[in-house]
Design brief:
By secondary structure, this protein is of the alpha+beta class. It contains four helices and six strands, in the order ααβββαβββα. Helix 1 packs antiparallel against helix 2 and helix 1 packs parallel to helix 4. It is globular and about 50 Å long. The structure holds methionine sulfoxide (SME). The site of methionine sulfoxide has 14 residues, from strand 1, helix 3 and strand 6.
């Protein structure tokens, strides 16, 4: 099966998860598992959620994930590919992480990465981060799938209070 048709099937499955999950937390746990199991080049799949406590710098905090434990459980917005995606509100695709000076290494095997912001009513609330052991693993159909997943999660998360 081509990556494009696999991605199309998975969209249907994640939409079903979103319809049946009892909470955003449950949806994110099930989603990382499904994506990592079914997309063979998605070797590490995880969420970082944006925490913004008053008087402290905003921080991306590791949430549900599948794959090896990462040393990066808390990432400030000015660091990493994760920080770049959250601070710009734009999807970042890196075909060769060894050439990107922003990259924070999670595993020596990682060759490429995609990070997609999650929005709740127009504000970044977190992001979906996927690492691959294969160079340039994330094509247009992957970007569409991961953005679709991030959007489903954004629809389930509570609104971010004003002032944050
Ligand atoms: N590579 C990310 C850090 C997170 S780990 O990949 C899980 C980055 O550069 O922000």
């Amino acid at each position: 099966m081509s990556t494009a048709s696999k991605a199309k099937d998975l969209k249907t499955e994640v939409a079903e998860l979103a319809a049946t999950a009892r909470s955003a937390h449950e949806l994110m746990s099930q989603m990382v598992k499904l994506l990592q199991e079914r997309m063979l080049k998605y070797n590490w799949v995880g969420f970082y959620m944006l925490e913004n406590p008053p008087g402290q710098p905003p921080m991306l905090v590791l949430g549900a994930f599948q794959g090896a434990m990462t040393p990066h459980t808390r990432i400030p917005l000015h660091q990493g590919i994760c920080g770049a995606a959250a601070s710009t509100g734009k999807t970042v695709v890196v075909d060769d992480v060894s050439l990107d000076p922003r990259y924070l290494a999670c595993s020596l095997e990682t060759k490429s990465e995609i990070v997609v912001p999650i929005f709740v009513r127009g504000k970044v609330a977190g992001e979906l981060d996927i690492d691959s052991h294969f160079p340039a693993a994330f094509k247009e159909e992957d970007r569409e799938l991961v953005e679709y997943c991030a959007n489903l999660v954004g629809q389930r998360l509570p609104a971010i209070p004003d002032g944050k």
